[in-house]
Design a protein that fits this description.
- Helices cover 22% and strands 34% of the residues.
- The chain is an alpha/beta fold and 128 residues long.
- The protein has a single domain, classed as 2,3-Dihydroxybiphenyl 1,2-Dioxygenase, domain 1, CATH 3.10.180.
- The strands form two sheets. Strands 1-4-3-2 form a four-stranded mixed sheet.
- This is VOC family protein.
- InterPro entries: Glyas_Bleomycin-R_OHBP_Dase, Glyas_Fos-R_dOase_dom, VOC_core.
Length: 128
């Protein structure tokens, strides 16, 4: 249903460095970038699988976070690595890796608050 989502960040270079550190653990990287010169003022980049920028961060009027974004992870180990690396990169813990059976029996997720106050999750829906 959703083609892509974008977050306005308060410090583009800092946010990009954060996401470039944590998203490759889930199989996502920068697949497109837009410069200020190209857009007339906006600077940003899109992360995703090759050829499909689905998660964008960029400049603009910051709104103080509060958005929730969940990224699919291929394994529970990838969820664990995402959480640990995000904390090392400056995020705050918002839910350690573990089962969330109230969603469904195999829902294994971890949550962090990113550098702009957004609730970012990695989730694996597969058993073990």
């Amino acid at each position: 249903m959703i083609d892509h989502i974008g977050l306005t960040v308060s410090d583009y270079a800092r946010a990009r460095a954060f996401y470039e550190r944590v998203l490759p653990l889930l199989g996502y990287g920068v697949v497109m970038q837009v410069t200020r010169e190209e857009s007339g003022g906006y600077e940003g980049c899109g992360f995703g699988p090759p050829g499909k920028p689905a998660f964008w961060i960029g400049t603009g009027d910051a709104h103080g976070g509060g958005t929730h974004v969940a990224f699919q992870a291929a394994t529970r180990a990838a969820v664990d690595a995402f959480h640990a690396t995000a904390l090392q990169a400056g995020a705050r813990d918002n839910g350690a890796p573990g089962l969330r059976a109230h969603y469904h029996p195999n829902y294994y997720g971890a949550f962090v608050i990113d550098l702009d106050g957004n609730n970012v999750e990695a989730v694996c829906h597969l058993p073990e």
